Amino acid sequence: MKERLYIYDTTLRDGQQTQGVQFSTPEKMQIAAVLDGLGVDYIEGGWPGANPTDSEFFDARPKLKATFAAFGMTKRAGMSAENDDVLAAVMNAGTQAVCLVGKTHDFHVETALGITLEANTENISRSLAYLVAQGREALFDAEHFFDGYKANPAYALETVKAAFDAGARWVVLCDTNGGTLPAEIGEITAAVIGAGIPGDHLGIHTHNDTENAVAGSLAAIDAGARQVQGTLNGLGERCGNANLTTLIPTLLLKEPYASRFETGIAVEKLSGLTQASRLLDDILNRVPVKQAPYVGASAFAHKAGLHASAILKDPTTYEHVAPEVVGNSRIIPMSNQAGQSNLRRRLSEAGLSVEKGDPALGRILDVIKAREADGYSYDTAQASFELLAREELGLRERFFEVERYRVISERRRNARGHLVVESEAVVTVQLPSGEKRTSFFKNEHAQEMSDDGPVNALWQALKQDLGPYQSLIDDVRLVDFKVRITNGGTEAVTRVIIDFEDDAGRRWATVGVSANIVDASFEALLEALNWKLTHDGAVRAV
Amino acid sequence: MKERLYIYDTTLRDGQQTQGVQFSTPEKMQIAAVLDGLGVDYIEGGWPGANPTDSEFFDARPKLKATFAAFGMTKRAGMSAENDDVLAAVMNAGTQAVCLVGKTHDFHVETALGITLEANTENISRSLAYLVAQGREALFDAEHFFDGYKANPAYALETVKAAFDAGARWVVLCDTNGGTLPAEIGEITAAVIGAGIPGDHLGIHTHNDTENAVAGSLAAIDAGARQVQGTLNGLGERCGNANLTTLIPTLLLKEPYASRFETGIAVEKLSGLTQASRLLDDILNRVPVKQAPYVGASAFAHKAGLHASAILKDPTTYEHVAPEVVGNSRIIPMSNQAGQSNLRRRLSEAGLSVEKGDPALGRILDVIKAREADGYSYDTAQASFELLAREELGLRERFFEVERYRVISERRRNARGHLVVESEAVVTVQLPSGEKRTSFFKNEHAQEMSDDGPVNALWQALKQDLGPYQSLIDDVRLVDFKVRITNGGTEAVTRVIIDFEDDAGRRWATVGVSANIVDASFEALLEALNWKLTHDGAVRAV
Questions:
Q1: ipTM beyond 0.95?
Q2: CB pairs under 8 A between A and B
Q3: What percent of chain A has pLDDT over 90?
Q4: H/E stretch holding A492
């Protein structure tokens, strides 16, 4: 018989405290739906009354399988719970659960609130009792509990016992400043259980200021706590909260937790975890963290040559869980660290099957090494890697040649005396038939356009008229552009990596290198079109 | 009497296993100097012989206070340590310390190596004995030790005892796949000590696949290990290694570690930690992780209203350590006090003395916030910051105006049929006298020039003829150029940061932002000339 462990998500409340994060109501609805689909037990939506977005979200009354929770604070001194208008706004959201934060650290009661310890304890007790009387599931967020316990254990325990005795379903021990290390969290959680609050009424809420938010949560669970709070992608105040994107698969897949606990999340649901994480990044317009545990693009990337060759024999040699279980995938990047087994693996991912011992493998590795020394990088630019390999394997088709391009960027005053920035480009290609085609593009209304730069102008001109290939490249879109100055031999050169996508939902990346940033970009643009034509089965149009 | 705890850095070896990371030799030299300045005990430089860059770095023989270590693997079966050419390449690097990785998990010995358990133990024993006989400090990286111990504790212990008995100064327990949770790492480390390898000969090497690399390291130290391995900014294979940027301040500042241990790093050195972390990101052209513990831009950002008001009363209310101790700073969005004193300090560094309470301080902060929201960054671009402040203080001189620029980049075939890439630029400026001057620059022999790009052409044209100011700008040289795609509001924009120097040995940096990379660069070039004219006392030439 497994014990029940509850997952409490606070992405929409503490996650919104992340610097630079401000969710709109539709975004909150979207995130809540993702969390609910995953199966978390509680979704905390925000603080009704604290700001217009939070109020609007509660007014929208999202329909959830999870228990919906509103956040607020314990009533203020000198008034009853019934008469506290801040608390009233929280109650009016009408959620099944209400979580109130209160002080447990004597220093904060005296410094931040400026009231007596007794008055604070009474505020907690009365507020929680009021929630219970109103028929709500009552939670108490014990702010600064660990620091408070270290400073004055008797008082800290008095506050949480007051909440529990008043009927709180959960007392949540918060490491608000994020400075408590896991061993200490474990010991103090055990002490609270020893003082009479059962573990199945205790929650843990940690922050990542020492990179131990996940470990601190596990330490509290080891000690007996049965609710864990966190956020998707570890959003949250300062360094963030405990990262549920990491905690959830750890609790579901790894021992001793997998055998011991049951949560509201079915193991099969984990296959949607990577997508959920990326969706949140999309909403926030953030570049996903490549090295994120479980869900990062690099989480199952095996770069060391020794690792890659063993992975080919048995993936468990260098993977603690299987990537597909969390909806992620394995990557064997190409680099000068890697040997032939990496290379064969990567070629087969590109649909190119090459026998072990084929001399082309050595040639491809040599070309890659030489080009990496020139400043190229093929870890992410898989499409450029594939074209390079096709070249050495005699499998590269030449669809068209670029005769010439010319790009102009200009800043000037227009007829009305306004400063304008414009770019224009002309590209001439020669088709296999010998026919030449010239295309022109200009940003006519530069100041209103989001991309008035030379690379965009070149791209628009290049893909405007490729004759017989046109229908195959019409749906190619440029989605990301990365530039860095690097060393090519002894000279500084510009490396450009560009991501593309098409209507079939494919994404591919190419790389270009040159001392000239425009020329480096052009190389990457050209490779992208060649890759697309290769994959869509274009036949060389003679 | 404090116990000695050793910090072993592997940024240049395991850190280089990060997907997308490829250090050049000058970059390795620069990172090694930063690590050495910080005071880590060991710097592992790479694997001599495994790839050209690593070999070149060891050939350069960096001068370090730290113990310099080369990485390699134990000798292969069927040959002596003396006759193994892979091991010979490692020895030939001539480092004081050598760290050899070897198998400890029976499954890997049989699956990946395909040799008997006895042969593997002998490889370990002979290899380590060989290092010792050659007078090197010998380290054994016990690969997959925790997984190996769980599968076959007797064999795993046999391998590490073989290394220890052969004279290894350190046996490093590696959680290679990153799947072992902290509690288990602690228990198994204690078991190894119980089996006869003293803690002051044990190291710990963890990976972040469950976000527990820091916690696992602490658990091993708690159990008795006295060497900890990691990387700056947590670089490393897959999800990265234990993050030394987090571990170092935790070990030096927080209990029980601060009172118990002494490391090679003085507490005062921590004030350089944030800068060291950012420097590594600069080298990698990565956007620094805002939520990184201790060193992230958000690590001491207090967004919640309740937090911010308490922070103003006493910063310890919501901070586990003081930001200045790690070279970071506090951010209170929408606030002022801390902001203004920071600002006054930075202005005085630029030679601008502004009284406390001057309303210009608030205006400058507002402009900086607005421009940062547009994508600007003033962390390194001190010259652009100074010009912005001078503008608000009414101390900015207008030396000349740019009427127009136009830049062309072209790829074409020349008369002899060779492909050439060329750029040309024309710039028109108006002097205060009303006189207009137009300058032109073209790369005539593009293929032989190191910089045939549009930004260089613009720079050459711009500084060719500035009339009365010409003698003051003749010695300005462009020394570094960084490009990053970032967010300006909701649009992706290009941010360019350029470093300059002059014959007086001054160096300064400016920033430009635009959707157009050429225009962003031009803005930074222009600011650089303005800064130089301001500082060389140019008088507006009417």
A1: no
A2: 321
A3: 68
A4: strand A491-501
